[in-house]
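Holo model, NAP. Inputs:
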Amino acid sequence: MGKRAIITGITGQDGSYLAELLLDSGYEVTGIVRRLSASNYWRIEHLLDRITLRPADLLDQLSLVRVIQDVRPHEFYNLAAMSFVPASWDQPLLTGDYNAQGCTRVLEAIRQVDTGIRVYQASSSEMYGRVREVPQTEQTPFYPRSPYGVSKVFGHYITVNYRESYGMFAASGILFNHESPRRGLEFVTRKVTDGVARIKLGLTDQLGLGNLDARRDWGFAGDYVRAMWMMLQQEKADDYVIATGVSHSVRELVEVAFRHVGLDWQKYVRLDPAFLRPAEVDHLIGDASKARRVLGWEPKVSFERLIAMMVDADLARVAAQPAPAGAVR
Ligand code: NAP
Ligand code: G4F
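Output:
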């Protein structure tokens, strides 16, 4: 009999890759989905006959308890969140309710049903914000710069607190930006690769972006979900930075993506102040030495390969279905 796992956020980028990994490792996978007026299963369409979906919501403690009681998982991955940083200024209270108290609700639900369930919390490099140290490690103090970052600091420390207070196996992964063809269209990598595809196919001739000087440590989501799983296979729960250790500016991302299809980005990209943030995180770069040493984890996909993979996927998708992307901020 394989292990059982519950994933919150299974309809998101990471949830879909993690579900694939766990299924391939022989797990029974249950995904928690919130009620929407239309289904949002495009990332897990190919998995629907191998997973079980259960309705629950991070805002509803009893719904979480019910699913955990029914499934009795060995492992619980809390990936659900309001994950788009700009939206957190528009909806700071809801962001806190999802990401901070939502995490507490998950931990409480697990504590109520069975403290032996291993739990993974999706923490974020956004917690470092105005960075206190370069590169960032598990010891670097946090200085979040958005309601999203603040909510994730709460989620991180409440996870540490449940580990220390109740002896629960609660691990927090401090993941730096990770991307894929399944990334939401509003995040900068996907916005750029989708824009490049539309420009290459003659559907538009411009791409409006915000801060081109911001730097991020971008990796491939498929590599990063492997680290989540590894964290829950250890003897002891702990916190780990997951990053490539290489950073690039948004400008470099744009250059690489346009070059992949033989175009000069300067002819198409314009500054749109609507995409500037009230407070920016200028430069994130992680030191994943601990994960390499303890977990044996390392990233396999380089930045250039990642961007090429995303541009190629968007070219194929847009060519097959050239509907406008719509304006997302
Ligand atoms: P994503 O694609 O935005 O997916 C977020 C998921 O959360 C979706 O499945 C969404 O469901 C679900 N969700 C949101 N609110 C919910 C609620 N109230 N109840 C139940 N489910 C809810 O995010 P991702 O990129 O996969 O990231 C996964 C996690 O890692 C997030 O916690 C994110 O903050 C964190 N993280 C991401 C990165 C990164 O670079 N990707 C880096 C560090 C940390 P719907 O489909 O219904 O919207
Ligand atoms: O792709 P982004 O929106 O990702 P951001 O804000 O770094 O957050 C992502 O990574 C975090 C991990 O550090 C996660 F926790 C979080 O959930 C999310 O997955 O923006 C990256 C950078 C920013 O500096 C932004 O100002 O790109 C800059 N940027 C420039 N123009 C833009 C744009 N970002 C977006 N979304 N859209 C633009 O037009």
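The pocket of G4F (ligand 2) is lined by residues 83, 85, 124-126, 176-177, 186-188, 191, 209-211, 214, 216, 250, 275, 277, 280-281, 284 (CB under 6 Å). The domain at 4-178+218-242 is CATH 3.40.50.720 (Rossmann fold).
Archived with the compound record.
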